[in-house]
Design goal:
By secondary structure, the chain is an alpha/beta fold. About 45% of the residues lie in helices and about 20% in strands.
């Protein structure tokens, strides 16, 4: 019996030593070699996922080329990293699955950092801050003075599937009927036609849609939520996340971010 215990003890010590050796052989250099930062630099191309239907953040010009605030953020990022940029245009609901599956390196597409999303993907600090606002139908919601009035039976809300507006509407407006659509344009058309009381989206977009439809709509442009637009990356890659944080800190400090903000939003927001 004593001999058996000694044999088991020796085996445990040997196993512990082996495990300790295996752990010790993993160096910071090994972690760096396995990071997406290293892989992207070696590949020479940064692949960014976007939905090119979100003016003025990302859309296509008359020649079909990607343009917009987020596009310029991605171009500057790739340039500072010393690699080429490849933009993959895809449906909004497919962006996070594509990121987690490794089909794209980053999402730069007006994606809001939320606690729920942060369970499955990692976010940088914000590069743009906005909030949800409301586009109202003058025909159906002409009497509405605040978004709180929309949480009532008979009210119809249009939201884009999978957006933070979708999540917020479900939680904060349980008494209203919520209709979900695949694209922003369909939501706006519902409001303009008087089939929906309101459409929730970011401040920039709501201002634009009201300007385009001044007779059929009115806008509540005071945000009722906090929406930090962040760069999204895969979980577990500290080196890549740290480089992105340094990139954002740099373009904030050297005036690049302010210049891009003025380029795309000065005429809309007046600042």
């Amino acid at each position: 019996m004593v001999r058996f215990i000694r044999i088991i003890s020796l085996a445990f010590v040997a196993l512990t030593m082996c495990c300790g050796t295996a752990v010790a052989t993993t160096t910071p250099f090994d972690v760096y070699e396995g990071s997406n930062l290293r892989k992207i630099v070696q590949r020479g191309t940064l692949v960014v996922g976007m939905e090119l239907k979100f003016w003025p953040f990302e859309y296509v010009d008359k020649e079909g080329k990607p343009v917009g605030f987020d596009v310029d953020i991605a171009k500057t990022l790739a340039d500072r990293l010393g690699v080429k940029l490849e933009i993959k245009d895809m449906e909004w609901t497919g962006l996070i699955p594509a990121l987690t599956a490794g089909k794209i390196d980053l999402i730069i597409s007006g994606i809001s950092g939320t606690l729920e999303r942060a369970k499955s993907i990692t976010f940088t600090s914000p590069y743009f801050t906005t909030g949800l606002c409301a586009l109202l139908s003058t025909k159906k919601a002409g009497d509405v003075k605040s978004v709180e009035a929309l949480n009532a039976p008979g009210r119809v809300l249009a939201v884009k599937t999978g957006t933070t507006a979708d999540l917020v509407a479900t939680k904060k407006f349980p008494k209203a009927t919520i209709n979900r659509y695949q694209d922003e344009t369909s939501c706006v058309q519902e409001v303009v036609a008087g089939r929906a009381d309101a459409f929730f989206y970011d401040q920039i977009s709501i201002a634009k849609h009201h300007k385009q439809n001044p007779e059929a709509t009115k806008a509540i442009l005071t945000p009722f939520t906090y929406e930090p637009f962040c760069i999204a990356l895969q979980k577990g890659d500290f080196d890549w996340w740290q480089w992105l944080e340094m990139y954002l800190a740099t373009i904030k400090a050297d005036g690049t971010l302010d210049a891009l903000h003025a380029k795309y939003f000065k005429d809309i927001l007046g600042k």
